């Protein structure tokens, strides 16, 4: 019942206050005045424990007020501020009821909006409050101030400042809450109408509470003014009254509840505005890439950093900060990744980068690489992430973004949705006008290295037209030993898998078959695309038992499979993954074989004889006696291929492709390279613990 009566009283009070409100539509930017009030109250705030140091502390503190900027505003408002100041002082001396004084002030300020009423009242209070503490700070060193201070009984008050500490703590706390509420009210008024209207629930709810917030704040200001006035008129005896401290604390508690609500609604408003601005910025990006530009600066600024206030890039060659202008009218390769980009990728990319820039015919070609690290805005920035970012940045010889936080939400959304970035690195190529000439050049870089220059989709297509299914396509740029075997026209088994027992059986059988057929055979182990640790152990066994030649550097095995996957994704990117291209069918087969069990490719020199799964290649050699008579007639390669085809036809192999969600462009449908039928689609959850990359780096 009591709470209902209080609500009823509050409603009556607010009805009376709202009835005084008759704004005439004048617009005043009160933010400079609020900043001035903040400056006064901050410098006037008394900390009892450091009273003797206040003068010195305020002398060296920074002056953040632009005095010239206040002149026009104060010309129009100074009279009103003086009137309000006098009214507050007069009512405080007379001990008038706080509500009655507040109503009087609202009548005096009837023609102003709520935010202006509040700031004008605060300015009037700040004048009196500031004068009081100015005297307190300088009276001991200034004779004029000392004389005035004696009239106001300041020396007596300050000499007995110990018991006053709870009073001033409560006063300072209330003033802090008052200023926080004032900032919220001014911020609400200042919200951009372009992005938010009063129809938005958060704003309408907040604005509905503004009259009550302004009323309670003004009541609190009057209580603060009364404290100072009473001190100077009643002296130290007044300080003994504990009821005054309780009143200040009660007002602070009530105002804190109002502040909490306003802040919550204001935060929701800012979130709403942020989303609207992000949508607008995203649309601007979409439109920018549909237009023709004279250079690439508009596009780069929209993508990387729009303002000119800082240098957003680091030059990798000398580690100095630079502006985006260094990229003007150049071909720009945007290396976009998270922090989980591997050292293998970086080392090979750097090698290709250096080869391309040092090539005789390309030195005059203006192109630059820029690393754009993408981190989700929800990720908490930690020392571990900072260390990883700085380690990657310092290792890169090209331009890098100064810090991931410079990337706004709209460009990140654009990069993810339009360029299909999903944590796996991509290299987007922009021409000197900012047009995308290749959505991801990493594939062709891995396949053809610097020969893919200038890294456009047209160049990618032309390279595929020139390419054929041959062993060099798989091992070029990886190992000169194999290229030597190819030139010598030797038979070569390129094989893989992670089952050491199968490897042992395969290599021994292959060696025995080659010896029986009298052919020169070399073998090289290429491992698997995953299970790095198992592959390392397999290489140790192969080397120890001299089963075959094997790449000792795991980076080479990573590069072999990365190139192979790049061939697949390159065709996906060009929209030709299901073309009836024999070369593409063989690449798809090999990727599928890698998913389960062993596999092997047999070539004679450069020409690939067979590309098969371990379940068909090994039995072909085990059954050598069944086809050995065909070797003198048809040759080892053709005899092997024909018998392998017979086994393959009855094997009914299953084909499987795994696409990580970070793969970017994933085909909607895919045809089986064995039977050409459309493959079924499944969702797989996999946990291999291969690399041990921290979760926060995968965001």
TrEMBL record:
Domain of life: Eukaryota
Pfam family name, one: SEO_N
Residue ranges annotated for the Sieve element occlusion N-terminal domain, each copy included: 8-293
InterPro entries: SEO_C (IPR027944), SEO_N (IPR027942), SEOA (IPR039299)
Domain Sieve element occlusion C-terminal, first and last residues per copy: 459-689
PANTHER family (UniProt xref): PROTEIN SIEVE ELEMENT OCCLUSION B, PROTEIN SIEVE ELEMENT OCCLUSION B-LIKE
Name by which UniProt lists this protein: Protein SIEVE ELEMENT OCCLUSION B-like
Organism, as annotated: Salix suchowensis
Organism classification: Eukaryota, Viridiplantae, Streptophyta, Embryophyta, Tracheophyta
């Amino acid at each position: 019942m009591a709470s209902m009566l209080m609500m009823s009283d509050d409603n009556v009070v607010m009805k009376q206050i709202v009835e005084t409100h008759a704004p005439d539509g004048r617009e005043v930017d009160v933010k400079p005045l609020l900043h001035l009030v903040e400056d006064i109250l901050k410098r006037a705030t008394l900390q009892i424990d450091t009273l003797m140091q206040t003068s010195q502390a305020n002398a060296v503190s920074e002056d953040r007020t632009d005095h010239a900027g206040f002149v026009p505003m104060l010309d129009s408002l100074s009279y009103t501020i003086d009137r309000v100041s006098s009214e507050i002082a007069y009512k405080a001396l007379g001990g008038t009821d706080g509500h009655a004084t507040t109503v009087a002030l609202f009548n005096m300020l009837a023609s102003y909006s709520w935010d202006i009423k509040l700031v004008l009242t605060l300015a009037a209070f700040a004048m009196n409050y500031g004068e009081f503490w100015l005297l307190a700070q300088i009276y001991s060193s200034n004779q004029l101030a000392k004389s005035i201070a004696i009239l106001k009984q300041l020396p007596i008050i300050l000499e007995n400042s110990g018991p006053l500490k709870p009073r001033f703590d409560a006063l300072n706390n209330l003033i802090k809450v008052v200023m926080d509420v004032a900032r919220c009210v001014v911020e609400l008024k200042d919200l951009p109408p372009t992005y938010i209207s009063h129809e938005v629930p958060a704003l309408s709810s907040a604005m509905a509470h503004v009259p009550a917030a302004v009323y309670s704040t003004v009541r609190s200001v009057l209580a603060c003014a009364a404290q100072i006035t009473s001190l100077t008129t009643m002296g130290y005896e007044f300080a003994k009254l504990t009821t005054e401290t309780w009143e200040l604390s009660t007002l602070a508690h009530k105002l804190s509840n109002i502040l909490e609500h306003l802040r919550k609604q204001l935060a929701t408003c800012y979130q709403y505005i942020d989303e609207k601005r992000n949508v607008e910025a995203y649309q601007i990006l979409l439109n920018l890439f549909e237009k023709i530009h004279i250079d690439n600066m508009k596009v780069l600024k929209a993508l990387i950093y729009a303002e000119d206030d800082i240098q957003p890039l680091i030059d990798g060659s000398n580690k100095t900060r630079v502006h985006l202008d260094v990229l003007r009218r150049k071909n720009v390769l945007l290396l976009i990744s998270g922090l989980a980009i591997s050292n293998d990728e970086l080392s090979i990319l750097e090698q290709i980068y250096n080869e391309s820039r040092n090539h005789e015919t390309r030195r005059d070609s203006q192109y630059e690489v820029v690393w754009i690290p993408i981190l989700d805005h929800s990720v908490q920035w930690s020392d571990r992430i900072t260390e990883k970012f700085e380690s990657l940045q310092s290792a890169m010889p090209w331009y890098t973004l100064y810090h991931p936080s410079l990337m706004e939400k709209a460009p990140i959304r654009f990069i993810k949705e339009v360029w299909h970035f999903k944590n796996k690195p991509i290299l987007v190529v922009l021409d000197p006008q900012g047009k995308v000439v290749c959505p991801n050049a990493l594939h062709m870089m891995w396949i053809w290295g610097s020969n893919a220059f200038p890294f456009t989709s047209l160049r990618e297509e032309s390279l595929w037209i020139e390419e054929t299914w041959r062993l060099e396509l798989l091992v070029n740029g990886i190992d000169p030993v194999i290229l030597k075997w190819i030139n010598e026209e030797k038979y070569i088994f390129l094989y893989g898998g992670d089952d050491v027992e199968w490897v042992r059986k395969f290599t021994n059988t292959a060696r025995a078959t080659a010896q029986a057929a009298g052919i020169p055979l070399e073998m090289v182990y290429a491992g698997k695309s995953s299970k790095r640790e198992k592959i390392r152990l397999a290489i140790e066994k192969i080397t120890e038992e001299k089963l075959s030649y094997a790449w000792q550097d795991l980076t080479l095995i990573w590069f072999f499979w990365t190139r192979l996957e790049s061939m697949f994704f390159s065709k996906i990117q060009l929209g030709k993954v299901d073309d009836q291209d024999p070369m593409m069918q063989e690449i798809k087969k090999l990727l599928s074989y890698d998913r389960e069990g062993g596999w092997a490719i047999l070539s004679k020199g450069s020409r690939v004889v067979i590309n098969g799964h371990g379940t068909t290649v090994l039995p072909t050699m085990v059954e050598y006696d069944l086809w050995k008579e065909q070797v003198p007639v048809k040759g080892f390669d053709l005899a092997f291929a024909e018998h392998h085809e017979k086994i393959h036809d009855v094997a009914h192999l299953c084909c499987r492709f795994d696409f990580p969600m970070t793969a970017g462009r994933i085909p909607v449908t895919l045809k089986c390279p064995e039977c050409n039928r459309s493959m079924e689609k499944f969702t797989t959850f996999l946990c291999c613990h291969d690399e041990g990359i921290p979760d926060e780096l995968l965001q």
